[in-house]
Amino acid sequence: MASDHSTSPPTIMESKTRHPLHQIADTPTHKLLLKQWLKEEELILSRVSHKESQIDSVRREITQLYIFFFLFHSISLLLLFHASASSSAVAASSACKRSWIPSLCALLSSLGLIWAVRYKSEVESHLEKLLEREKEDAKLLRKCVEELKKKGIEFDLLKEVDALRRAKSLRVESKVVRKWSARDFVTLFFFSVSCLVLAMIRLILCD
Prior knowledge:
By secondary structure, the protein is mostly helical.
């Protein structure tokens, strides 16, 4: 009787003294949850990497639009200046009367490029918000995985999983009052440059 009592190990004490990862390995529910969370974390990191590559691509496109904007107007003004300098007085007077044509072309081109820059900037802003949300999800999930690995079978599945779902569903983006941003100043700058180009076209053709 005494030998039977001495050979029966206290399973509860053993489970508490064992490493949490060993406890998880012996518990199907905790083991399955850990696998699911690790897989989900890997998927989130993959989406984060994809979003970052998309943002880099959009930023390169915006830079190309900047370069094209200045190249287009620089070449246009140089061509107009060269044509005006090599023309006679009668041709110059006629060109001044028709100065609205290059002015209209420059204005339409400027508005088109400004719209394209603004659109790409909005796409960049939207992707940045999505990226921030994915990073928050990854941070929250990583915290839960660390807690599970730390606590082992003491990890309360119902409580912690419910807290994770509630944190994701109740996460509300902070409503920031709309103020002037860098994108607004960029738009204003390009519009000012466009107006300056129109004045220079008039000056070149009519002076």
